[in-house]
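User: I'll paste a sequence; please echo it back and then give the predicted structure.

Assistant: Echoing your sequence first, then the prediction.
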Amino acid sequence: MDHHCPWTINCVSHRTFPHFIRFLFYATASIIYLEYFLCLRVAVVWAGRNLPSYLGPTPTQLVFLFVFFVVNSITLFALAILLARNIWCLGGNVTTIEGWEIERHETLVRRSRVLGGYLDGPDGMRVKIRKQEFPYDIGILPNMRQGMGGSPLLWLWPFTATSSNESGLEFETNGFEDPSLSWPPPDPDRMPRSSNRASFEQPFVYDVDLSMTQNNVDAFRRRQQEDLKRYDEGGTSIHRRPFSERYQNENHRDERFASQPGESDDLGSGEEGWRDSEGDRLDDFGVDENAEFYDEDDTPLAELLGRRHEHTDSK
């Protein structure tokens, strides 16, 4: 997925990205065409500014012309920037989310250089951070062919066929990095915490005499069920403090990790709420940040699709 577009109410993905580029291109071209005629009209009005009012437009027409010209100009400016950015991403074979990940990785590399090449992960883990090159940038023209598909003559043709699902399962790499390395690189703040749920088959008791009282056992099990309920509802999710706070407390080992559960419900205040240079979070691109940072099922999508195909073939 590239990102979720709220204006088209659709996700821009490998299959829909060429259509999205064509949509931006034709929308920008149409607005430029409209801007041209608006400029001609404004020039005519300005040239006749010294004429008697009954020879020119009415005040209502002037207000509509002014509002139309301003709104069209602002829209053209925004769409032109969006089109230019997406063409730049197309030339680098980078999705919007991957651009966020690249900038995040560069930030982690800078931090690790200050702290000796390692950063703190969950549960006291020390994670070695090394710079990795983006593996899917294979050259401007090959990148554009891979993103738009088909012949360059059909890239702007509105009725070009949609890419197949199979074409988005495997992508050519540039070979700069070891093929065994994954992308995106390891991020200490997105690594799942080790399971801290104890086995309650043999509950711990403080005194043998207490365990013989059925009422105490029942009370313990009720507390146990309440704890499990709060755990499943996410009430005990631990969010890491921002790096600046943890770096200031580097000499205090007990302050290196997250704030206690319940201290803050605002993900934007923790490390999960990291923003890139444009102020965007993953949530702004349609990604569920809670699942992204705390989901322990890290099986790649291609592997899940392969399993589904095997299951289908077996039937």
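The two ends are 30 Å apart (CA to CA). Residues 59-92 form the longest helix (34 residues).
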